[in-house]
Specification:
Helix content: 40-55%
Distance between the termini: 35 Å
Number of strands: 3
Structural class: alpha+beta
Number of helices: 4
Length: about 140
Amino acid sequence: MRDDKWLLSRLDYLWTKYFLDVEQVNPVFIRFGRYARFRFGSIRLDRRTKKTYIIITGMFKDENVSQEVVDHTIAHELCHYTHGFSSPHKRLHRFPHEGGIIKAELENRGLIQLYKAYRSWIKEYKEELKEYYRYRR
């Protein structure tokens, strides 16, 4: 069953296997948020408490969405944390998606298979959305 504990286990797995060089300098929390069709993940730093929150779309509770897609989303947010976005780490880039830095970071960490799985899934997902909105008109 996919719940917040499951998400935390995925975050722990990815961090210890692929982001071990990234120090967790503040508390980082992860949870499912509301069902969102277009924003799959987000990361934010609470400036008051200095805690980082990763929110993953509730759509990914559905086990028909592959674990690789969920892992990609978590790893994507960890890249932002690593690059100093929504974390106390030094900011490495001006913009969070500048020049394909997320793909490059995933590739450098041996996670390109997650990127490829996500790209394949998103292609199918876009077709599903087209069909959905075509028949709602």
